[in-house]
Specification:
The protein is an alpha/beta fold. The protein contains 23 helices and 16 strands. Helix 6 packs parallel to helix 7.
Length: 616
Amino acid sequence: MAKVTRRVVERSAATRSPYLEGIAAAAAQGPLRGALSCTNLAHGFAASPGDDKAALKALRWPNIGMVSAYNDMLSAHQPLGNYPEIIRQAAREVGATAQFAGGVPAMCDGVTQGQPGMQLSLFSRDVIAMATAVALSHNMFDAALCLGVCDKIVPGLLMGALSFGHLPVIFVPAGPMPSGLPNQEKARIRQLFAQGKVSRDELLEAESRSYHSPGTCTFYGTANSNQLVLECMGLHLPGTAFVNPDTSLRYALTAESARRVVGLTALAGDYTPIGRIVDEKAVINGIVGLLASGGSTNHTMHLVAVARAAGIHVNWDDFDDLSRAVPLLSRVYPNGKADVNHFHAAGGVGFLIRELLDAGLMHEDVQTVVGPGLRHYTREPVQQAGELVWREAPIQSGDVDVLRTAADPFDGQSGLRLLTGNLGRAVIKTSAVAAEHRVVEAPARVFQSQEAMIDAFQAGELVGDMVAVLPFQGPRACGMPELHKLTPILGVLQDQGHRVALVTDGRMSGASGKVPAAIHVTPEALSGGALARVRTGDLIRVDSLEGNLQALVDDTEWQARDITSPSLAAQHVGMGRELFDNFRAVTSGAEQGAMSVLLDGALRAVAEPAVPGEHD
């Protein structure tokens, strides 16, 4: 961990220093709105209620901006609807005002899965970052609260907040829904439906019992990985991640977040800007927490992008080296049977962070929103006599099938791997993959879309061992959609005794499961990546033990093959996709964060694939 951190610090020196200088230049002694003209300021408080208007006009109290991903369609974000009034009241109690600065879009991958709208999902992260910047651009605010939970939303909010690195910022989640139908049973019914053994009505009933109330989905995908990573980076109040919505404890934590962020302003005397909290050590802590918990592979892109927003450069060599040093301490679906509510009850984030700190696998000497030192995050919130207090997280796991100590891990290594070879660089998550499936060598079957593979499966054509290869699924080709419609099919084939794997420049994200999947292949096929050279019948080796991704084709023949692109025009129109031409044209590779923003020369220079041996 120390070696990787030193490497990141050295790699980031040319960009981190100017970023910190920008924070210092933007900071102010008095309320930031004091720099506005009278006309500007009058516009800024014209609609405020009387007491707030007087306070804003007097330039004495801090003013807190709220940026929210609220909408009432998505279960994870619906609870955020009543947060603004809770926050306003809590801010007034400590001598501050709070204004709703702006909303950001919040799309759900669960709703758009396998649909054309999914091709906007990854790009929505950068839209959210820009929307956050627009919300805070009025210079009316001395601090901010970011309200959001899910996949691209939290990384986007964090990237946007870091562009205002001089502001103190606390993130305020909504928590997971109560447990419904067990995730393993849901997966079983999905596989039965894929085989035509249950009806659509039966499938819909199972899904409705899984996703049944306000709150985040309870499996450990990108949304819940977001929440754990934020705590590891010191950006939540401790223990906030997995408290259920619409409970008195959740409301108390929301109010306390408002009171606490007021205390972090320059006016309150404990000035702690987010740009100084998110430093190289905090980024490493976030990666370590992600790895130890078996979190979402989406963060091999999102944490790269977040770090870049703070002038910090990480790459997949860093993830790979840390993964080999960090043990797997939790098993939550799809890496186990339990959901995040069970994980929280077994000891949760506080237990996990304490184990990692005590094992020397996290940086304790960091700044957080509750003060110096990550040890604050070994505590959990409770209410005693109506008061919000923190106590030490359990010393012993409440369920060793879900959460374990660093001395007795599920695996000595976390299970995220970098794969390299003549197909490019990719990541693979093996924490849910049985040992006998971690190396697959089989003939390729090349498909140009999920639908083509589904059609082949339904026609009974997928027989025998197979590496399914799906090129032209990357960000420049079509926005890098998740390919989860393939999960039940691949699971059925594996259960039938076939050796199967997936190789793609697309995504599988936080629900990557029991079938080995080499994903995010970089360079992507549309950018000249070698994945476009694969032909059906080529022998492909996916070796997560040795970190090898190879087409076993004679090199002379391999180099002579043409790289041809299918027509993608139909995937660039409809459902708003035509509005994202500029994103597709400039987006960086997956290892460089799949970013369509912050594409300056420094990023291009540092973000090239690491040279062989850099991690040695």
